[in-house]
Amino acid sequence: MSDNNIATVSTINLDYRSLYLHFECGTYFEDVECIKDIKKDLEDTIEKSHEVSKKEAESNLFKSIWQALLRLVAPLM
């Protein structure tokens, strides 16, 4: 969202797999009514968001094992 005049909506993640291996796409909007809806959705999302604390981000044994298992199957997705 930029200047209440330009917006993009996409599935693109900024990582190697998304940019080079997957066929993801985005849509560019300029000077159209739906930008108001996109802005409202963005504001609602930000309102429901919270800053992740260091404690929330720290790993525990179960979380580490789960993440390791997910990394094993990620290339299959």
What does the model show?
There is one protein chain. The protein is of the alpha+beta class. It has one domain. The protein is built from 4 helices and 2 strands. The chain has helices at residues 16-21, 34-48, 54-57, 61-73, and strands at residues 6-10, 26-30. A two-stranded antiparallel sheet has the order 1-2. The model has no long low-confidence stretch (mean pLDDT 88).
Please sum up the structure shown.
The protein is an alpha+beta fold and 77 residues long.
Helical proportion, percent range: 40-55%
Order of helices and strands: EHEHHH
The outline comes out as flat
Poorly predicted runs = none
Given helix and strand content, the structural type is alpha+beta
The strand count comes to: 2
Question: What is the count of DSSP helices, taking H or I runs of 4+ residues?
Answer: 4
Number of individual domains: 1
Strand order of the largest sheet: 1-2
Spatial extent as radius of gyration: 18 Å
- Give a short account of the largest sheet: 2 strands, antiparallel
% residues in beta strands: 5-15%
What's the average pLDDT? 88
Q: How far is the N terminus from the C terminus?
A: 30 Å
For the structure shown, list the relevant keywords.
about 80 residues; alpha+beta; 4 helices; 2 strands; flat
Question: Which helices and strands occur, and which strands form pairs?
Answer:
Blueprint: E1 6-10, H1 16-21, E2 26-30, H2 34-48, H3 54-57, H4 61-73
Antiparallel strand pairs: 1-2
